Structures are given as structure tokens and as C-alpha cells.
Amino acid sequence: MKQKHTIPELETIAVQIRQDIIRMLEHAGSGHSAGPLGLTDIFTALYFDVLKYDPKKPDWNQRDIVLLSNGHCVPVQYATMAHAGYFDKKELMTLRKFGSRLQGHPERTKLPGLENTSGPLGCGLSQACGMALAMRMNQDLHRWIYVVMGDGEINEGNVWEAAMLANKYKLNNITAIIDRNNIQIDGQTEDVMPLEDLRHKWEAFGWHVIDIDGNNIESVIDTLTMSRAIVEKPVMVIAHTIPGKGVDFMEYDFHWHGAPPNKKQAKEALHELRTLQGKIRGEHE
Amino acid sequence: MNKEHIDVSTYHLLDVTSELEQEPIRSGFGAGLVEAGKQNDQVVAACADLTESTKMHLFRDAYPDRYIEIGIAEQNLVTVGSGLAAMGKIPFVSSYAAFSPGRNWEQIRTTICLNQQPVKIVGSHAGVSVGPDGATHQMLEDIAIMRVLPNMVVVSPADSVEAKKATLALAEDTKNPGYLRLAREKTPVFTTDKTPFAIGKAYVYAPGSDITIIATGTMTYQALLAAENLFKQGIDAEVVHVPTIKPLDATTILTSVSKTNKVITAEEGQIAGGLGSAVAELLSEEHPVPIKRIGMRDRFGESGSPDELLEAFGLTAKHIAMAAHHMMKS
Ligand SMILES: Cc1ncc(C[n+]2csc(CCOP(=O)(O)OP(=O)(O)O)c2C)c(N)n1
Ligand SMILES: [Mg+2]
């Protein structure tokens, strides 16, 4: 059994992961900042509490599955996986470089531990449905599938085709998470393509919907754990997050969707994350 | 010795060996679309959450009432385009080539090609020169999947100046569907406002007698550079620029190949199905000769800098020249 971390410990890990995301992106010179920083608390909760896995045996046949459907946010997954022991943190600095296992968008065949290849949006939930159906056929009833999607991403019709399918077959071993950060490339989601009333849309599609603060690790853990107890429906977690979370000049600003920090900005961001770390309640205070 | 051999005067080309200005091919599209909008108020535009990347923001800002933000929904993008065209509009619909036409091919086939609507599909970020985003975003199969569609016109300009002309020409064609292939990175601008462009025409940018190099898109500049170097090494290569892959200018290609009887094709995409295939199909029926295709050889791209990737996958002037030497020996 993995030893459980306390919430303050997890918050400290999340700050370290955010620092690595900043370093990786600055070094790569391209890539996405806002989404990964906003998703860090969710990934920390997943890999340091919720998920069943063994980083030394990434193809263990009883592992839980994480599908990153919004592949452009993969820096957070790489950084979290490195912290969780899948590979050496040094390798994070190869992000987006020629020959790296850490491709700009995740490729399953390149890095053990990734469950899918993504980047082109809108495909994760359908892949989850296929996996869930196969697990059911295999009587594989103790594994769980977590799908992470962007809110802009669910503009894609493919997502809603999967939404209907999951309801039809009552795929209760799927927990989907929408990163509700209100931004996409061309602007605010409600300006580009209004999503609201998001909760009622998913409910009308037959899903059990839970709204949470996606930057509160405790609430993320509670919700994801609880979702396994909801057996009558697939579960959709609408995780309200702050894009660029933890770096003041990036927060809430859609221009940081697809931009990396330059050297000076990275320095400022790292400084801010460090001092924020000092504010977090913890045993070293 | 400098080769006078590139037909600078007829085609008003700039010297490719000189320091040239660089601009992304997609920028020429952005400028061309604004111009097309000015000339014809039936020209409209739609994009799927990539308005600045595809340079459509210039049109959006100039003609906000004729611009539609579709959101991240490429199947909807082209199908809405079909509806707009049915009502007499000339819609330009843009995204990254990987997603449109990568994702929505059947909708294009039925509602645009079979339905014969003049929707202009604009696929930006084609080729491995997309760089660090990696394989998912480096579209290599678009020429192949678009040129097999009846009624579809396929255009792959060589620089931003030509992209502007291609955009205007596509806008003027109120009958046919079109596909315009664009690249992300800055590349040298070697054609000028006076350089001729017409849909369906290929151009002999450099006359020569030993071997024919047929190139499209970003590879035409590389082909011209290769021809300069080959000339110094005693090989007189003819460079045929093929901005329109469909309909293919068979006359120009066959005239050149009848003279040289040796062919190299060059494109930033899969050799299977692309320009190389189109030329091989033509020649095998009309004038079979040895042919070497330069392009991606049945593999995906990966992350890296554009230059690293072009070098690694053999998509530079050097590789074209090497292929020419090899062919001249055999
Ligand atoms: C099928 C497809 N269309 C377009 C894109 C280009 N693209 C990448 S990210 C993105 C915006 C995604 O918005 P969201 O899911 O909200 O992610 P966030 O900006 O919040 O990170 C777009 C349009 C893509 N990757 N895939
Ligand atoms: Mg978003």
C-alpha cells in the first residue's frame, strides 16, 4: 500500500510540480502554461492519493487509467509522473526537444505510463467508453478510468457522442473531469462557444454531475473517491479551476493558454511559487 | 559562379542564394483573405478556435459581420461552410490541417465535394516544420486525402506572396471547392507581386536539361537552392514549381520530363498519396521514367525544432541535391 500523504504535504508537492512546469516550459521555449498550472492540484490528487498504480510496472494489469484528453496540458502529467517515480525529474527538461520521450503532445508509444496519444481534442471520453466496455466484458471490476478534458474541448461533437454512449451502457467505472477554467484559445469560453448551463447539459445526458473547486486538493480527493461509490451513472466532475493558478500574471488570462514564460517571467513565476509555498500551512512552518 | 539559370526575369523571382525576407506562408493567406473580402462582399470566413494562428483575425477585424466563430468543432466548421455556400456565399473555413481536413473528411466529401459547393478549406500548420508540437499537429497526409476527392482543387503555395495570390484566385472561383495548404514557420519570400500565378498551372522556375525537380509548398525554395548548387557541380537541373496539385498541370510536367527523363519530386508531406504519387501516376501512364520521391517515408513526425526535423527527415536542398547526384550516376 502506498503511504497516504497529508493535505499540507500534497499542497507542497503541488507547488513543486508547478515549479517544474514553469522550468520545463521556459526551457522548451514553447508550450501551454495556463491549463497545466490550473490542473496541478487535480493531478497531484490523482497520482498522490486517488489512483492505483505502480510506477515501476506501468503496464500492471490492475492499474487505474488516466486519460488526458486535452493533450496540450501534458506538462502537468509529465511533471506529476516524474514526481511519482515514473522517471527521473531531469528528463523533464527534454520536453518538446528532438528525440525526447516527452513529446509536445503525449504519445503513448513513447513514454510508459501514458495510456493514450492525444492533442487533437475531443477523443478521450470515447476512448474511456471503449476501455470501460472492455473491462466490463473482462469482468475487470476493480479498476477505474479517469478522463481529464478541457472545457473548450467539449465544443467537439465527439464528446457528446461519447456522453450518450456512456449513459446508454451505464458506464459507472468512468469518472470524467472537465477543467472548467473558462478559457480557450480565442478567448473566454462563453464568448467563443457558450457552454452553460453545463451542469444541466450533462445531467440531461444522463450523468451524475458534481461541481467542485478544482484547486482544492482535499475537495478533489473527496470527490474522486466518492465518485467510485456512485454506481448507477457515469460521473462528471466539473472542476472549477483558475487558469495559470499560482502565478499571478498568468491567472485568468486566456493569452497564457498556449504561451511559455520567457526567462524573466519564469524567474518571477518561480519566485512567486516559492513564497506562496511559504504561506501554505505545513509542519515546517 | 552564380547560376543565371533560375528564370528570374520571366517570373520576377528573387535570387534564392541572397539573404531573403522571411514570412510565414499563412500570413499571405491572412492578407489575401482581407483583400478578397474587399473585392467581393460574398466572401465570408469561419474558424474553429484558431483565429490568430490561421491569420483569420485580420479578416475578422476588417469584416466582423462576415466572420463566424464556430468553436472547437471542425466537423461543424466545414458543414456550416456547405450551408453558407448553398446560399451564395464564398466561405473560407480554417483550422490546422491536422483537424481540417484531418478530422472532417467525410463531411467535406459529401456536403462540399459531391454537393458541389465552393467552400474553401484552409489547413494551416502542414508539414513537420510545425516543430515542437509534435506528430499530432504535423499534418502530412492532407494532400493525399484531398486530391482524391472529385471536384476538389488542391493548392500548396511556396511562400507568403504566392499564398496571397492563391487565396484571391480561390475566392474568384465560385464553382469549385478548394483546399489551401499553409505552413506555420517563417520561410524565405522569393516570389514577387509580379510572379504569375493561376490555379492549375505549374511553372518552370529554373530551366535545365539533365533532371527535372518537381516541388511544391515549402520545398520549392529548397529545390531552387539545390539547383543552384547542382549547377556549380555540373548538373543542369530544371525546377518545376507545382502550386496546384489538383488539377495537375500535366502539359508542363510532361514537357519537362520528355527532355530530362529523370525526375525528383519534393514535398513536406507523405510521399504516399502526395505530389510524388500524383506525378508518378501521371508519368507511369504517359511517360515512364525513373523517379525519386522526397518527402516523409511512411512515418510520423516528432517534436523538435523545424530545422532539426527537416534535416532528420531529409527535407532540405542538400537532400534533393544528393538524390540528383545519385540519379545522374545510375
Ligand atoms: C481537434 C482540435 N481542434 C483544435 C485544436 C487546437 N487547440 C488546442 S488547445 C485548444 C483550446 C482548448 O481549450 P480548453 O480545452 O478549454 O483548454 P485550455 O485552453 O483551458 O487549456 C485548441 C482549439 C486541437 N488541439 N484539436
Ligand atoms: Mg479551458
Give a verbal description of the structure.
- The complex is a heterodimer of chains A (285) and B (330).
- Chain A has 285 residues and is an alpha/beta fold.
- Chain A has a single domain (7-283), classed as Rossmann fold.
- Chain A has nine helices and five strands, in the order ααβααβαβααβαβα.
- Chain A has helices at residues 7-28, 34-50, 74-83, 124-137, 157-168, 189-192, 198-204, 217-227, 263-279; strands spanning 65-68, 145-150, 174-180, 208-213, 235-240.
- Chain A has a five-stranded parallel β-sheet with strand order 1-2-3-5-4, with helices on both faces.
- In chain A, strand 2 (145-150), helix 5 (157-168) and strand 3 (174-180) form a beta-alpha-beta unit.
- Chain A is globular and about 50 Å long.
- Chain A starts with 6 loop residues before the first helix and ends in a 6-residue tail after the last helix.
- The model of chain A is unreliable at 281-285 (pLDDT under 50).
- By secondary structure, chain B is α/β, with parallel strands linked by helices.
- Chain B folds into two domains: 8-20 and 195-329, Rossmann fold (3-Layer(aba) Sandwich); 22-188, Rossmann fold, CATH 3.40.50.
- Chain B contains twelve helices and 14 strands.
- Chain B has helices at residues 8-11, 25-39, 57-62, 74-86, 105-114, 142-147, 160-172, 219-232, 250-260, 275-286, 306-312, 317-329, and strands spanning 22-24, 43-47, 67-69, 90-96, 120-124, 153-155, 178-181, 186-188, 203-206, 211-215, 237-241, 244-246, 263-270, 291-296.
- In chain B, the strands form three sheets. Chain B has a seven-stranded mixed β-sheet, with helices on both faces. In chain B, strands 9-11-10-13-14 form a five-stranded mixed β-sheet, with helices on both faces. Chain B has a two-stranded antiparallel ribbon with strand order 1-8.
- In chain B, helix 10 links the parallel strand 13 (263-270) and strand 14 (291-296).
- In chain B, helix 2 runs parallel beside helix 7.
- Chain B is globular, with a radius of gyration of 19 Å.
- The mean pLDDT of chain B is 97.
- The interface between A and B is medium-sized, with 31 and 31 residues.
- Thiamine diphosphate sits between chains A (34-35, 70, 72-73, 119-122, 150-153, 179, 181, 183-185, 243, 257) and B (49-50, 72, 74, 99, 103).
